[in-house]
Specification:
The complex is a heterodimer. By secondary structure, chain A is mainly alpha-helical. Chain A contains 13 helices and no strands. The radius of gyration of chain A is 20 Å and the shape is globular. By secondary structure, chain B is α/β, with parallel strands linked by helices. Chain B is 30% helix and 24% strand. In chain B, strands 13, 16, 19, 20, 21, 22 and 23 form a 7-stranded mixed sheet that branches. A 6-stranded mixed sheet of chain B has the order 6-7-8-3-9-10, with helices on both faces. In chain B, a hairpin with a 5-residue loop joins strand 4 and strand 5. In chain B, helix 14 packs parallel to helix 15. The longest helix of chain B is centred in the middle third of the chain and has 16 residues. The chains are: A mainly alpha, B alpha/beta. Chains A and B meet through helix 8 and helix 9 of A and helix 2 and helix 3 of B.
Chain lengths: 313, 535
Amino acid sequence: MEIIDILLAASFWEAAIRIATPLIFGVLGALICERAGVLNLGIEGIFTAGAMAGWMAVWLGAGLWGGVLVAALAGAFFGLIHAILTVPLGLSQHVSGIGVTLLATSLSYFTYRTALPDVSSPPRIEPFRPLDIPFLSDLPFIGQALFSQTAMTMLALVLVFVTGWVLYRTPLGLAIRAVGDNPSSVEAQGLSVYGLRIGAVVVGSSLMALGGAFLTMSAFDAFFFGMINGRGWVCIALTVFASWRPGKALIGALLFGAFDAFQVRLQTEVGAFLPSQVFLMMPYILSIIALIVVARKAEYPKALLVPWFKGQR
Amino acid sequence: MSSAAHTSPETSQDLLLSLAGVTKRFGALVANDAIDLTVHKGEIVALLGENGAGKTTLMNILFGHYVADEGTVTVASRDGNLEQLEPGAPQAALDAGIGMVHQHFTLAENLTGLDNIVLGTEPIFRLRRDRSTARAKLGELMAGSGLNVDLDQPVYKLTVGEKQRVEILKALYRDARLLVLDEPTAVLTPQEADSLFAILRKLAANGLAVIIIAHKLAEVLAVSHRIAVLRGGAKVGEMLTSDADHKSIAELMVGREVPASRRTPREPGKPVITLRDVTIDRGDSRRSLHGMNITAREGEILGIAGVSGNGQAALAQLIAGLDKPDSGTVEIFGETVTKFDAHTFAQNGIARIPEDRHHDGMVGSMTVAENIAIEDVRSPEYQKLGFLDFDAIRKRAEHAISDYDVRCPGPDAPARLLSGGNIQKLILARVLEKSPKLILANQPSRGLDVGAQSEVHRRLLEARQGGAAVILISEDLDELLTISDQIAVIHAGHITPAMPTDSIDRSELGLMMAGQKAATNANHASTATNPGETA
C-alpha cells in the first residue's frame, strides 16, 4: 500500500527527474562519443571538472549561465585531450579515458584547494531556482513533477530531442553514425574521420561536464569532494542500456532516477528492518539487472574502440 | 580523326586518364617503376599482376592516398581540358570524377544503402537531409545501368553482390567518369560475376571508363578491351584483349612458365572421415549444419563448393574437432568419435589449413621456427629434459623454409613479416611434413597470386597421391574443378551428395551455390528443380 502511495506522489517523480538530470547529460555525452567510435572513460573526471569549474565561475562573480558555459568549456578541454590521444594517435581508449578521469579529478581538487586553502565548509552560491511557468507549473501533478524543475533540467530534456534530431535527421549525424561503424566509409566519401571523431568527443565531453555543473549549480549550491560518486560510470552503463539511442537514454536515466528516489522513500517506510546500505545498493543492483536483460542483445557501434589510421584499410 | 571518334575509343580527344612515368619508392623497394597508363572514355582496362606487383600502390597514387616520387597523373576535366591531378588529395580525385570500389567494401553496415550513397555529398552542417532529390537521381541511375538494389535496407542485410552494387552506385552518384574496381569478383558467385560484367559493359557503352584490378585471367579476358600487366613494380606488357591469350598473360604476370595443375587418375582408398546426418543448430545459417552427410576417402580430394557464410565455418570447426554435433555421428576410420577436441583429432592425423591464415594459422609475434613447431611442442622430438629443444626446432624450420620456398629473412624472423603467400607456404610445410591422413583445406588459395596458387595445388595433389584424404572448402570454381575428384555443394547449411567432378557442369554448379537449384544425381539421370527456376 505504502509503495503505491510512494509511486503516485508528485514529489516522488519530481525527485526522480531531478536525480536523472545529470545522468541525462552524461548519457547523451557518452553516446555521442561512442556513436563516433570512441569510448570516453574520462566521463567521471569530466563530471568533476564541470561541477568544479561551473561552480567556481559563479562564485567568482559570473552569472549562472556564464558558469554553465565555463563548465562546458572545461569539459571540451578534457575531451580534446582524450580525443587527441585516442583518435590521431590511436592509443588505448580505456587507458586514456581512465587517465583523463584521474587528471581531471585531481586537477579540480587541486584548483579548489589552491583557491580556498583554509575553508572547512565550501562557500555557497545562489543556484538555479525552480521554474515558475505561468499556467504550466500550476497544473496538478505534472506541474510539480516536471514544470517546477530548474532551467538546467529543461535544457537536458531539450538536448535529448536535439541530439536525436542531429543524429538521425542531419548530414552531420549520418556521418557520425557512419564513422562509428566503418571509418573507411566516411573517408572514401571525402569526409575527415579524425575531424568527425574529435568533434564528437569534444562536444560529448562538454555535455558530460554540464551533468557535473548541474550538481553544483542546481541540485546543490556548493562543490564537495567525492560528490560525483560514480555517476559517470553509471552513464557508461546506461549508454549500453540505451542501445546508443537518445530516447532510450532518457528512459534509462529516468528509470535510474526513479530507483534512487524510491529507495530513499522506502528507507523511511521499512528502514527499521533493514540496514540503510541495502537501500543504497538498490538502484545499482536494479541497473545491473536491467543491463543484463537489455545489453545482451546490444548492437555496439562496430568501430567502437578500434583506432583508425589514414592509409590503412 | 574526329570522324572515327564514336567507333574507336583510341582517339586522343577521348583520353580520360593518363599516368606518365609514375614512380614510387618505399625505402629500397621500388613499388612502381616509371609506369605509363592511359584510359579512354568507354573503355574497360584490366590491370593484371600478382600480389606485390604494384597494382594497389598505383591506384593509391591515383586516389591521392600516396604521393608519387616521380611522374604525373593527368585527367581530362569535364570540359575536355587535360589537367594535372593534385597529388596526395583524395578529395581532388573524387572531384575529378574518379570513383573506386575497394575489395573490402567501404560501407557503414548500420546505415541503409541510400544513406551510404548520400554520405558526404551534401553540406554537413544542415538542419535537414534531402533524401527525395537523391532518390530521384538514383532511380534514374538504376534504370539506366541495371544496378538494382533495395536502397532502404540496412547494408548488413544485403548480399555481397548487392553491397557491391551500392558501391558502384556510390561512385556513379558522384558523377564518376572513371570507375576503378579492385578484385571485384573475388567474393561473387559466377552468376553474380556475369551480371556485374553485363552492367560494366553497359556502363562503358554509355561512356564510363573502367579499370579492373584482377588476377583471375578468365574473367579479364571476358570483359576488358585492353590489358596492362604489371610485374615487380614495372609494366611488362600491354595488349588489346582480342590479341591476348590465357597462357601468355599468365607467363607475363609470373615471369616464368606456370605449371598447370593436373589430377592423375587414382582409385580412392578407404574412408577416413564420415559425417552421418550431422546437425549443428546455432540459430544462424552461417554457423549451422543440417543433416550433413559426407565421406572423405584416402587418395581423394573432396571439394566443398559454396559461397562463404553458408555453413563452411561450422563444417571446418567440426572436422578440426573444435565443435561437436547436436545430433548425428562422426566416424574416423570407421570408429565413432566420442571425444571432440582439437588435440584428439590432430592425434588421429587430421591437419588443417585454416581459412583466415593470419588469424588462425599463425602467431604473428612468434618466430617462423616457433610457428612451424607450434602444433608439436608436446612431441619428444622437440624436447630436451622437458624443455623445448630450439636447435631441433630451428633445424626443422630451415628444412621447411628451403623445401617449401618460404621467402623470409630466416627461422628467427617474426612470422608477421611474411606476405600472405609465404604464410600459406609456412602453414603447408607445418601441415604436410607430418604426413597427415586427412587435410582440411579451407580456402587455401584465396588471395594468393597465380604462382603461389599453383604451388598450393601442387602440394595438395602430391598429398593426395601419397594417400591422404583432402577436404577442400573453396569458393573458386576453377580451383574446385581443377583439383577435386568429387564436389559437393553447400548452401545454407545443407549439402548436396558428392558428384564426380568430370560430370559437373560449371554453370549448374554456380546455380547450386546460389541455392537456386537442388542437387542433380551424380549421373545426371534426373533433375530436381522447378521448371521455372532454371536460368
